[in-house]
Amino acid sequence: MGTLVWFRNDLRLRDNPALYHASKRGDVVAVFFICETQWRDHDVGDNRLGFLLDCLHPLERDLLKRGISLRIEHVGRFAGVPERIVRLARSLNLDRVAFNEEYPLNEKKRDSRVIRACKTAGVETDVYHSGTILPPGSVLTGNGDPYTVFTPFKRRWLSQVDSSALEPLGLPRRQGSQTAESSALPGSIDGVDRARVAKRFPGGEAEAQRRLRDFMQGPSRRYASDRDFPELDGTSALSAYLSVGAISPRQCLSAAVKANRGRIGDGDPGICTWISELIWRDFYRHVIAMFPHVSRGQAFRPEADRVAWRRSAKDLAAWQEGRTGYPLVDAGMRQLNETGWMHNRLRMITAMFLSKHLLLDWRLGERYFMNQLVDGDFAANNGGWQWSASTGTDAAPYFRIFNPSTQAKRFDPEGRFIRRWVPELEGAPARSLFNPGKHLTPGYQAPIVDHAIARQRALDAFKALKN
Ligand SMILES: Cc1cc2nc3c(=O)[nH]c(=O)nc-3n(C[C@H](O)[C@H](O)[C@H](O)COP(=O)(O)OP(=O)(O)OC[C@H]3O[C@@H](n4cnc5c(N)ncnc54)[C@H](O)[C@@H]3O)c2cc1C
User: pLDDT for 262-291, tens place per residue?
Assistant: First the structure.
């Protein structure tokens, strides 16, 4: 008798409720299912797969130190999980399965099927919460409805979170009753090996903790002013670790509150702004949990699915490859293509450029990002895309269209970031970076659309929804 702890996007030992509580009962075996066909259907790309694999190695090592074996099972699709999990629990003589909840629709359906299959087989299931700081469904308006606007959500969230009860759970209890064995971790997943992004994003819980510590000791204090400048290392670079759960949002919040002398909604402006980003992360997870239609590829606002998006494989390719002729857009896309990560300001600028200037369906961009990002995360990516395309919850109003040249002048005033990622512009004068239509640079793409004309086209397309 004992518990099978099913790891998913919670690849850590500390602050892992399913693992922690199971370890108290004793006789724990851990399992991770490799579902590469399903993940590819969800547009998970090579960078995230490589990162995931690189996180599994330290996870297994750390589990073994606590006397827990990690079993790796290949199932292809989620549909294969229920039968396999029951079979595994039975063969290991375990009477319980424990896991931490996930919120996207397919994951929720998979989990319901697992719970049903376990029940039929006489295996108990223990489901815990850890993917957000406050659980979806717990932050509601006075009428009991989910919030669709961030600011009141944040206000309510801050009034509900208890800053004195944020201490994360510790390590699981060491298991003594069995001889833990190492599994055969695969050398690659769907052809992707762990070295793919390991130089920039070494996998694992210890690395995530190191990043959090470093960020709290320095950049967090300057976050409010630095976070918008892509040339500065002004953000935590923790998103990949949060997305596979190598660190929990509660661990992040707890460290931030400690650094802020126990305060959560006021205090150091940098830390408060960072806490706000953690609340955005919760917000988008609450949105996908409470509004399942966004997991079905639909716009949050149904009328936004009537926008007459253009079709142009040529424009899409130019955007993907960083050849739009708008220097900051191209720099962002090239950063993404080369590193698997893109600065938040650039994610907004490039996403708006695709959905407004090119008037291409935001889902094409959402899919491309998911395929490239090491931190690809359905809730944050979908939320970010629907914000930029003005189709989502609390989205940018459709008439507020970023001018990519003004944005460049404001957030990369010396053009350092642009010149780093777009070598064609290395020796170009500032005027070509901030006014590319007027000052063409030999060897660099001329703008593929004119800002004013493209802006008007987007405004017309959105205005047409009102008729
Ligand atoms: C179009 C678009 C697509 C995006 N796709 C993703 C994605 O696939 N995965 C992802 O993790 N983030 C995504 N984001 C949000 C944000 O850009 C990244 O989380 C951030 O750039 C990661 O860098 P960081 O870890 O240094 O963040 P920090 O600035 O240090 O922020 C700390 C953490 O807060 C969370 N966070 C920050 N900003 C946001 C936000 N706007 N929405 C939700 N959570 C946020 C992240 O988990 C992040 O690691 C997207 C944003 C946009 C506009």
Answer: 999 999 999 999 999 999 999 999 999 999
C-alpha torsion sign, points 101, 106, 109, 115: negative
234, 274 Cβ separation under 8 angstroms = no
Ligand 1 atom with least separation from CA of 348: 53
- Which backbone phi and psi does 235 adopt, to 5 degrees? -115, 175
Q: Which pLDDT score is estimated for 389?
A: 96
Q: Which residues are catalytic?
A: 277, 280, 309, 344, 362, 385
Q: How confident is the model at residue 160 (pLDDT cuts 50, 70, 90)?
A: very high
DSSP 8-state class, residue 65: H
Q: Which candidate, 253, 244, 247, 250, places its Cα nearest to that of 276?
A: 253
The Å distance, Cα 345 to ligand 1 centre, comes to 10
Mutate which of 280, 286, 344 for ligand 1 pocket (most atoms within 8 A of beta carbon) = 344
Q: What is the pLDDT of residues 25-37, one digit of tens each?
A: 999 999 999 999 9
Only one residue has tokens 């606007």, namely 149
CA distance 244 to 253: 17
How many other C-beta atoms lie within 10 A of the C-beta of residue 98? Answer: 25
For residues 34-44, give the mean pLDDT. 97
Q: What is the set of domains in the chain, with CATH numbers?
A: 3-130 (3.40.50.620), 131-167+205-290 (1.25.40.80), 302-466 (1.10.579.10)
State in Å: Cα 182 to ligand 1 middle.
Answer: 34
Give dist(CA 442, CA 7) in Å, integer: 53
Mean pLDDT of 407-411: 97
Pocket test of ligand 1: the residue of 51, 235, 239 to mutate, having most ligand atoms within 8 Å of its CB, is 239
Pocket of ligand 1 (CB under 6 A): 227, 235-239, 242-243, 277-278, 280-281, 284, 344, 347-348, 351, 369, 373, 375-377, 380-381, 383-385, 388
